[in-house]
Structures are given as structure tokens and as C-alpha cells.
Amino acid sequence: MEVHKKVVITGGPGTGKTAVINHLKSQGYFCLAEISREVILEAQQQGIDQLFLTDPILFSQKLLEGRIAQYQQVEKVSKTIFFDRGIPDTVAYMDYFNTQYPEHFIQACHNHPYDVIFLLPPWEEIYCSDNERYESFEQAVEIHKALKETYLNYGYTPIEVPFDTVANRVNYINSHLK
């Protein structure tokens, strides 16, 4: 019987989260995708280049709504579910950018608990930017700190996943779920 059900894979931009999530999927795990790229692409199709910079609260609200919907989608699932980022990530990014936000963001973090948080550290050797990832590596390091602090503030003890091959990182994650 598995003890952990809701598992977050998080970290700053360019830490290898997507590769880890894809490997978990290839092993048959149920994984929920990061939704920020979807929100960003939707805004770009509406002519807004960087919605987070243009309207950070609207962007964050869309992320929050999507992450809550993902959480509710699997609330009754009795197996391990991996989330590519959790609800507290939304707050961490707003804190990083010194964005004031309404209380319901904080309440959402309290009302939707996760069982385990895995934090992937900044890894300069694999970092690259693209059309949806505009942060520099130095900013990625600061975002990592904000994520760690946010999860700690909500009572979690994030498990840092060491640098290694994707397969070994997934093995490390699996070894901490038993």
C-alpha cells in the first residue's frame, strides 16, 4: 500500500522538472502537467507577450484556478499522483516578484495539502531559456530560494533532488516514497 498520494515536483525554471515528469510518466505514473506554459501560450495568442509581467494577478489567478482544478480532479484517486508544480508555487512566484495578492491565494495553499514535495535545485549546466522561460539563471536561483521558503512557510519539508541523470533522479524520488 502506498502511503503518499499527492506529490509535487517543483523547482525554479530550467531544473529538469519536465524531464523528470516525462520519465515518471514513462514508468506508468499518473502525472499532471505544468499549466503555466498553457496560460502563457493562451495569452500570447491573444496578443499579450508576457501576461505575468502585464497583469501578474490575472496570470496568477489563472494558474491558481488551473492548479486547484488539477488537485480536485485527483482528490479521490488512491494512487500516487505527481504534480508538475503545486499551488504554493503561485504564491512563491508572486512573493519573488513582490506582487501583492489577495488572501484567497494563501487560503488555497492551506486548503489543498500535498503529501510530499520534491525540490529540484538550479542546475546551470542544463539551464536554457525559451519563448516561455525568460528568466536568467541568476533569477532561477532566486526563484528556487523563494519556492523553498514558501513551501517551508506552509509547513512542508521539501526533499531536494540531487543533480544526476533523469533516471537516477526518478529513482531517488521513488526511494523517498516507500
From TrEMBL:
<protein>
    <recommendedName>
        <fullName>NadR/Ttd14 AAA domain-containing protein</fullName>
    </recommendedName>
</protein>
<dbReference type="InterPro" id="IPR027417">
    <property type="entry name" value="P-loop_NTPase"/>
</dbReference>
<dbReference type="InterPro" id="IPR038727">
    <property type="entry name" value="NadR/Ttd14_AAA_dom"/>
</dbReference>
<dbReference type="Pfam" id="PF13521">
    <property type="entry name" value="AAA_28"/>
</dbReference>
<feature type="domain" description="NadR/Ttd14 AAA">
    <location>
        <begin position="6"/>
        <end position="169"/>
    </location>
</feature>
